[in-house]
């Protein structure tokens, strides 16, 4: 059982008293799903062993993307999908952040703000690439909503394959070594376009003290598959893994985080209901896609990506494009004879 879900179950009434006025339909839905997860209220899967005739029933997971018990496959699933698009190039991570003064918009209108962030970041990168070579970038954007201390801090991590593809010439331009774009120029365009988009799409008054300088970080993170493996671990961790919760008392929770400046591990202690709300405020609007592919990495561009892989294959016999892997079948071993069991059905509560 997840420590977070256990605390949520024990202190739900106090949480609703203290923070219920902040709950929207998405948060209520996530709470309900997490409290059902791996209980009989969620349902049971029925398993049968044809070797020793052992019959078993297991509680089902809720499948909610915010549930700490249902996130364990996310990293491996993303990495397997990216392997089919892997290129023998350097990869970059570009991070677009919002200043503190605008983070309140993530509470008042998260859907509009996050959609604007995706739209502006993708258009900015595409325009910078177009100015360089007229080629097409391939990149993936992942939305994060929390800081290291788990406060609300919306930002985007963008994984960019180093180089551009010119479809007219059928050529690959690898670009400069260890350089993608000027991050200061990116930051200026990011700021101007985000403010314009917020003014047009979000019915809110912008604060007067919006900083004149915003931050965009752009760095090379490695080459080929090792870079993707590093990024998958970095991008797909939950808001707070159980291993970082160090102690729980009758009234307080202590968790650890890595300080961004010193890189030292620090601890933070909060009242239980404040801790629960700290995590729940990061529930995303229903249907909002947190991970999005663009350019030659987009979902319907498999043939284009394969053509680019073949360019590298013709240039080097050391590289082999990775084929798409079939979806893995869920397998369970019999606890009695250790032969493979078969799932014979699922029962849901009426």
Automatic annotation (TrEMBL):
This is IS91 family transposase. Residues 138-298 form the Transposase IS801/IS1294 domain. It comes from Vibrio diazotrophicus. It comes from the Bacteria. Residues 8-98 form the Transposase zinc-binding domain.
């Amino acid at each position: 059982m997840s420590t977070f879900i256990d605390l949520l179950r024990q202190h739900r009434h106090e949480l609703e008293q203290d923070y219920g006025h902040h709950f929207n339909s998405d948060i209520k839905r996530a709470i309900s799903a997490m409290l059902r997860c791996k209980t009989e209220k969620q349902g049971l899967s029925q398993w049968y062993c044809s070797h020793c005739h052992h019959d078993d029933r297991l509680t089902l997971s809720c499948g909610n993307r915010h549930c700490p018990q249902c996130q364990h496959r996310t990293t491996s699933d993303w990495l397997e999908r990216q392997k089919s698009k892997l290129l023998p190039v350097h990869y970059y991570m570009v991070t677009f952040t919002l200043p503190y003064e605008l983070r309140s918009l993530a509470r008042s209108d998260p859907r509009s703000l996050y959609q604007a962030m995706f739209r502006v970041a993708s258009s900015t990168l595409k325009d910078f690439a177009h100015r360089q070579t007229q080629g097409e970038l391939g990149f993936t954007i992942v939305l994060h909503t929390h800081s290291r201390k788990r406060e609300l801090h919306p930002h985007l991590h963008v994984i960019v394959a180093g180089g551009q593809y010119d479809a007219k010439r059928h050529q690959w331009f690898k670009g400069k070594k260890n350089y993608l774009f000027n991050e200061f120029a990116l930051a200026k365009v990011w700021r101007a376009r985000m403010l314009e988009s917020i003014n047009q799409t979000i019915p809110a008054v912008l604060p007067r003290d919006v900083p004149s300088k915003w931050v965009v970080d752009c760095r090379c993170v490695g080459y080929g598959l090792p870079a993707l493996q590093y990024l998958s671990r970095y991008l797909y961790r939950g808001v707070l893994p159980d291993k970082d919760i160090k102690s729980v008392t009758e009234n307080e929770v202590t968790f650890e985080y890595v300080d961004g400046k010193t890189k030292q591990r620090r601890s933070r202690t909060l009242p239980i209901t404040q801790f629960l709300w700290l995590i729940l405020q990061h529930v995303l609007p229903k249907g909002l896609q947190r991970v999005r592919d663009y350019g030659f990495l987009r979902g319907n561009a498999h043939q284009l990506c394969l053509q680019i892989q073949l360019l590298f294959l013709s240039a080097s016999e050391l590289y082999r494009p990775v084929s798409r892997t079939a979806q893995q079948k869920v397998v369970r071993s019999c606890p009695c004879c250790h032969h493979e069991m078969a799932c014979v059905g699922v029962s849901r509560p009426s």
